[in-house]
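Researcher: Can you fold this with manganese (II) ion in place?
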Amino acid sequence: MIIMEKGATQEQINDVIDEIKKHGLRVDISRGEFRTVIGLIGDESKISFANLSIMPGVKEARMVETPYKLISRDYSDLFINKDESRIVKVGDVRIGGDDPVFIAGPCAVESREQIFRIAREVKGAGAHILRGGIYKPRSSVHSFQGLGSQGEAEAREALGWLRAAGREYDMPVMTEVRGEYQTELIGEYVDILQIGARNMYDQDLLSRVGRTGKPVLFKRHFGASIEEFLSFSEYIVAEGNKDVILCERGIVPVGKGNSYTRYTLDLGAVPVVRRETYLPIIVDPSHAAGRRDLIFDMSCAAIAVGAHGLVIETHYNPKEAIVDAKQMITPGELKDVIDATNQISKITTFYRKKIN
Ligand code: PEP
Ligand code: MN
């Protein structure tokens, strides 16, 4: 990264950018209140930092030693205080601040009536953002794949319901982009593009979604280390899109495994991620637990360790849901989660600020 002098001129900044581009690298430009920092995207060994550091207007040129650079606190600490995160703005909702954000809705959008009723009830419970799958990642080709998989007309219809339900109840909406070809279609209808756990490693999908410029909810793969999780999120950010919300949703444990929960929620990842990057991180207890009786406890824990919000699968009648019925909670139960975690957040946020 190249830190420019406070008084560096635009011409000097442009000269540095040209020099970097000449070596086949791309740039990320961050303009702080006082100075500009230029991040390098690509193979840094192709360029001489000694030469860059003596260019006019350059204060310092140094390598960032992590595989993720643009999202690391090393790169951003000039702009964002330690422990403060980037605020991702989606409509009137702010993700990454002191107040937790709640994303709720069904696993899959099944009908207009279903998504409208759930939207009304989760809004009543205090949710800020509506979720609902249109293209579902499923282990079996014989399972319901989501309405979107039935064809473009069906996808547009379901996306239209999701968007209309969000408008009716004043909530931004989110759905998963499971394949590259779905990106622009989904982008026409929703506010947040979700990358599912199974696609965390799909570089081309990440770049394509990044280029839409829309906020992205980026889920951790169940086999990914924290370093991989953060490194792959940088494929989105490298397209000039820093509106990425990270999401911990459970991993497969090393060793004997565990048959009591669907995955193992890695709560330690939350404070680690907050130290490593300025991107906000939220937690999905639904897919981690796989069972509704654990959602309250796991939600409380997630907010206590510093998650900026929760994604919770919710249905007025969980038993009738086609996908993930076992882990859905009702809007009434969601309200208890929201009320309790809002109180927990006030206490832990107060002390976190004090000790940091
Ligand atoms: C989902 O949120 O709908 C989902 C399928 O989750 P994950 O990608 O975490 O399994
Ligand atoms: Mn689900």
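Model: Folded with manganese (II) ion in place. The first strand starts at residue 2 and ends at 4.
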